Amino acid sequence: MMGEPYLLLPGPTPIPERVARAMNRPMINHRGIEFKDILEDVVDGIKKIYRTESDVLIYPSSGTGGLEAAVVNFISPGEKVLALSIGIFGDRFASIASNFGADVEKMSFAWGTGVDPEQVKKRLLEDKNREIKAILITHNETSTGAFNDLKSIRDIMGDHPALLLVDAVSGMAAIDLKMDEWQLDVVVSGSQKAFMLPPGLSFLAFSQKAYQVYLHNKNNKYYWDIAEGLKYMEKGQTPFTPPISLYYGLQEALRMMLEEGVDKVIARHKGYRDIVRASIKAMGLELLAEDRYASPAVTSVVAPQDIGANPIRNYMQEEFNIVLAGGQQKLDNVIFRVGHLGYVRELDLLSVLAALEITLVRFGFPLKLGVGLQAAQQVIYERHQK
Ligand SMILES: *Cc1c(COP(=O)(O)O)cnc(C)c1O
């Protein structure tokens, strides 16, 4: 089929030509001055994206590795942990903590919604002896397309001393997050989502408060131990051999994001959400996430029951070379997910929405071709008036 596939997954996401070219360079000594310059530059860039002055470590791993690093460094076996889950990734964070010996209490909320701060507040008020040592939360729940308002969760914690650990793997650089201003203690993200890079890097930032907790941490760790990362960072190195090509790409991707400006990057993603949701509604399809929780990074669409989500995805791939994500677990064949994070343009979305309409009509769904497209165009038109 002609051209590159339209990859609209919530990770991995498309790679800009600039980033691909930057990665295609010879290897260098990872214990030399050239690498030191790159490491310092990318750490500086990541801090700007995270809006933090805290320490940031980069691990060669998928996002889940970064979550495991957060758990083994900042949670000790036997400690009580409150895990707030709004979907599969919230469940995963809870499982990692319990596998490493934490006493995990999971609070689950309906899929397609966010965490209800009032319920968390109530639970924390009951915690008179301050037994809860950490709270786990997902920034953007990729499996449902709902996001959490982290600031409101931090606000209701008040002076409760628990650490707030955030899985921002798919939310970072797509949805607003101000690590220092919002007093988030540990924030994890990964390369293959809004960072416009291939999979293979995770980023872990931690506050001074979290570092103090780390000093008394009793969990087993070696590869993930932040003490090693910090020690080597002083020398401009990483403890173990870094994936140098990915660092080249990271440097270029950060340049692109900072040239555009973090606020603009965030606003652009909100625009994508509004375009896709307006269009899907106009087509007469249902959305999984309620408007107020709707993610700027990924949109989950409920497929017409008599068609199913997977035949729609398969047809779009075969006929148009468009790759959408399916639903996971109980949402398999129920929803399909349109990823719109990272290196995406409004025009890409128009193509995908146009192809979706053709697909729906092909499967007999009652739809007048162009209604969804027009709704999308209208949102884009209005955005460009501003
Ligand atoms: C993608 C993702 C992860 C990490 O997944 P990996 O496959 O390990 O990279 C974790 N949390 C969320 C919310 C994600 O979207």
UniProtKB/TrEMBL annotation:
Keyword Transferase in record: yes
Residue numbers of N6-(pyridoxal phosphate)lysine PTMs: 193
Gene Ontology biological-process annotations: glycine biosynthetic process, by transamination of glyoxylate
GO-annotated molecular function: alanine-glyoxylate transaminase activity; L-serine-pyruvate transaminase activity
Amino acids binding substrate: 337
Key words of the record: Aminotransferase, Pyridoxal phosphate, Pyruvate, Transferase
Pfam family, one: Aminotran_5
Signal peptide interval: none
Residue intervals of the Aminotransferase class V domain: 6-330
Cofactor or coenzyme needed: pyridoxal 5'-phosphate
Originating organism: Syntrophomonas zehnderi OL-4
Protein name: Tritium exchange subunit
InterPro entries documented for this protein: Aminotrans_V_dom, Aminotrans_V_PyrdxlP_BS, PyrdxlP-dep_Trfase, PyrdxlP-dep_Trfase_major, PyrdxlP-dep_Trfase_small, SP_NH2Trfase/AEP_transaminase
Protein family per UniProt: Belongs to the class-V pyridoxal-phosphate-dependent aminotransferase family.
